[in-house]
Structure formats: structure tokens, C-alpha cells
Amino acid sequence: MPAIATMKSLAFMNKWVSSLLLVPSKVVTEKLGCPADFGFGELVWPTPGDEIPFWKNKFPSRDASPEAPAEIEKDSNLMHIIHITAEMAPIAKVGGLGDVVTGLARACLSRGHTVDIMLPFYECIQKQEISDLALITTYNSYHDGNWVATNAYHGVVSSIPVIFIEPSNQFFKGKNVYGGSYNELEAYLFFSRACLEWMQVTGVQPDIIHVHEWQIGALPLLYWDMYQSLSLKKPRIVLTIHNMEHYGECRQEQLSKCGLDGSIYASVEKAIDDRTIGHNPERLSLLKGGIVYSNAVVYFGILNGIDTVIWNPATDAFLPAKFHAQKPEGKKICKYYIQKGLGLKSEGTVPLVVCITRLVAQKGLHLITHAIKRAEELGGQMILLGNSPVHWVQKDFEDLANLHNKGTSTRILLMYSEELSHMLYAAADIVLVPSIYEPCGLAQMIGMRYGAVPVVRKTGGLADTVFDVDDPSNHEKANGFVFEGIDEGSLNWALDRAFRHFIDKPEEWNRIVQKVMENDNSWNNAAGKYMEIYNSIRVG
Ligand code: ADP
Known about the structure:
Elements (H helix, E strand, L loop, with lengths): L1 H12 L1 H7 L3 H7 L48 E5 L11 H15 L3 E7 L10 E13 L2 E12 L2 E8 L16 H19 L5 E5 L6 H9 L8 E5 L8 E2 L1 H5 L27 E2 H8 L2 E3 L30 H14 L9 E7 L6 H13 L3 E7 L3 H14 L5 E5 L3 H10 L2 E4 L9 H7 L3 E5 L2 H6 L15 E3 L4 H17 L1 H13 L5 H14 L3
Parallel strand pairs: 1-2, 1-6, 2-5, 6-7, 7-10, 11-12, 11-14, 12-13, 14-15, 15-16
Antiparallel strand pairs: 3-4, 4-5, 8-9
Helix pairs in contact: 5-6, 9-12, 10-15
The chain binds adenosine-5'-diphosphate.
Adenosine-5'-diphosphate (ADP) binds next to helix 4, strand 11, strand 12, helix 12 and helix 13.
């Protein structure tokens, strides 16, 4: 695998660097200006040559929170919500969708509601991350003229109840959440029906079925045109669109495989993709069908929150040192730990830029590439953690990695790693999000919670959450550096200013760091808005 090859060569190249860096941790904590009783005397510093990559290390999840989390007030009008989704953090996460589902589900649970998540039982899910896993039902669900034997399991993931749907055919097999050697569209059509079939078989009728993205877009059609005339009467349907780039292009005969008559939906009022009218064949859009058939549709009119249980630098088990706004010293340890582990020059005074992203056009690939060059020119450091589903993009970044990973200021790590992402946010001085468009964006919010100052392009949710430090009209909200254009000069303008701030005005920088860490980007607000929507459509 290319990502491993990159890490191996990295390990080899940097062996000599690591030998220079093997200094006792006590000396290190003193050098970093941390108090002697800081408690990291026993920390073993990693090297790029370590046989087990350092981000696989487990650290005690000591709670360094300043105070117990505030008791969330319970809602009075309690209901049952079932999320149906292709992703859930941390066990089946590819991007923000997984984070959002877990965060929103947890927020509604803490307000007293009953919440379940229904998820395909992907073969790649690590079963040890599920507690109390048990088979609850075996039933048949329809696909393409056959009834497929299907298992439904119950389990608990990160304190959230999950129902896993496991068909006995080839669907959802493979090493990753997406990209297995089965037809993805047909697999999600099957899954959408299998979730309703499970409710039909078991008699479970939630107040709200909350479906996410195109993958579950056919469920509202199946619900109103099939299962309502069977026994499902009570649920009402909410669809959240996280990213409109993907809309589930589907031919009539493909839709028919889930048991609906695909030809009925080939009209402008139902599910035809208007842009394909007059083409041969005309195509349906599962997302459009979902929009037409849902009781409520949310397109990021509601700003996401972040799951403050999974993303909490005061308790995070992936961090070698915990920290929070009032006790930020642990962040220096995390930066030093990452620098040592990746063979970067171990310098607290050099700004470290981190970018963690899917490598797709939306994310501003040319700006990411340029930032790598610019950070180096400015004497800073940059780490990119990313992965691309597009072969040529992955290849381009591999070439870039071969070029830059030899030095001691840049690391391009082409893989997906939840653990490493936590460590990198904690180590970062700056989190870079140069998206061309961004419906909401979580990276900037997570970065802020971990004390990284955001440098972002002014678009979508980034423009709603990051306000420029040098904009006098926004003094109170100021928390980062913002640029508007999509050219390299625009990025330079923001990145250069961030670097100058970091180097020339360390005290002011520390104040910004404290401010971003204290920012409330939790789900409290957003969950309240979702509850209003649920209440406005529920029956009874
Ligand atoms: P999107 O949903 O468009 O990918 P978001 O900013 O909403 O963008 O969410 C991205 C989420 O995926 C964040 O939690 C980010 O940390 C995570 N992520 C993206 N790429 C990687 C990667 N290569 N390894 C680990 N986490 C990643």
C-alpha cells in the first residue's frame, strides 16, 4: 500500500534524526517550559523507526477537565429517533458525516430521548470497538427478485445504541467503508429497504426516522409508497444533506431492484434528475427523491457541532498529554511528541501547520499543495494527513511526499488514521482548511477545540465559524485568519499573517489559542434546532 511505503521510507530516512532526539523526558518537559510535576516523566518518546507506529500507542485517558461536564437539561416532550446512515464515528467514518451522526445522536440522548443508529455491518468494522454486541433478529429483506437472509445485531458504540444490518450476500464486504467490489448504489438501496423491513418485522416504530445523504435517499420513497400501506404508520422522515456533490445517480431498473417500480419515479415531480431529461437513458437522483418524499429536509441551515466526548483534549486517550484552555502545557508535549515521532525538527518556536482532509477537489487541492511549499519557505512546518478516492490525485500526492518527506519540515501522510488525526490536531499551531466550498466543515472546529488557530477560505460554514484577527469590525469574534480568493496569493496573505503573529506576538497568539479552545462548538445549540424540526413534524 502506498501509504505504508511512504511511512517505511520515512522511517528509514529519519533513523539518524531519531537517534539525536533520544533525550530523557524530564529534560524535555523542562525544555518545553512545563512544570516539573507535569506528570509525563514516564513518557517514552517515539521515533520514526518504531516498529509499531507511535499513533497506535494507547495512553491513559486521564481526565484533566477543569470541572465536571454540565448536566444537560432534559427535554419534556421525549421521542424515539432512529438515524439511518452509511457512516458513524469512530467505527465507520470516512469524513464529517460519521462525526455528525454520532455527535447529534449523543446530544439527543443526553436530552433524554431514545436514539438508535442503524448502520450497515461493514466487514471492515472492528468488532472490539462494539460493546454488548448481540444478534437480535434474523429476517429476510428483498433485493432484485430474491429475499436475502439478513441479520440484525444490537451493540453499543461510544455509549450510543447501534443496530447493525448484515445481509448474507456480498454487500458491505471489503477493507473499507466505501469502494468494495459490489455495486454500492444497489447495496444502499438494499440497506434502505432492510431498515424499514426490520421495523416492519419487529414492530419498532420510532417517532422520527432521520436519514442522511443520497445513500438513504430511497428510504422515504419506500416508506410512503410501500411500508405505510403495510404496518408502519407513526414515523415521520427527516433528511439531512451534508454534501450535495453526491446525489445517487440511479437508472429506473436499478431503483426497481429494491421492489419499487422505478418507472413511476421518472417524473419531474418525483425523482428524475432534471439535467438528464432528453438523454438516453434519463436518470433518477436518489437525493432528489429523498427531498421530495421527506417531511423535512435540512441542508446545513443548521451549523454542525462537534462531539465533545470524542473530541476532548482534556480526556482524549489518543493524546500523550492532555490539556485544556486553563492548563495548556500538554499541547506543547503533543507537538514535541509528533515532531519526534515523524522526524521533524523539534522546535517549539516554529509554527506547525496541520491539514487533515479527504483529498478531493472540493478541499482546494492546489491550495493545499501550495501551502506545503509556502510553510517551508516561511521556515515553518506542515503535516498533511489525507487520502484520496481518486487514483491520480493519490499518485500526485505520493510524488509530492517523495519530494518533501526527506527533509525535517514537511510530512505528507497518505492514509486514514483516526488516532493520528487526534494527535495532529493537538500538536498543531495552525489548522488549515482552504476549501473551494464547504457546507459546514468540522476540521476547523475540531482544530480550535484542540488549540489550533484556523487559517481558512471564506466559504460556507468556514465563513460562519472563523473570523479574521485583523478585521477591526469583528474584534469580539476574531479567532483566526481568513482569505477569499482561490489563488495562491490569497492563501499566502492569510498564512503569512498567521506566521507573523505566531512569531512576533507570542502573547497575543496564546490569547487567541485560549479563545479558540473556549469557543463553544458543541452540539448543544444545533441539537436544539433539530429538536424543533422533529417536534414540528412528529405525529401525536
Ligand atoms: P468532509 O465531511 O467533507 O470530509 P468535514 O470537515 O466535515 O469534511 O469532516 C472531516 C472529518 O474527517 C474530520 O473529523 C477529519 O478529522 C476527518 N478526516 C478527514 N481525512 C482524514 C484522514 N485522512 N484521517 C483521519 N481523519 C480524517
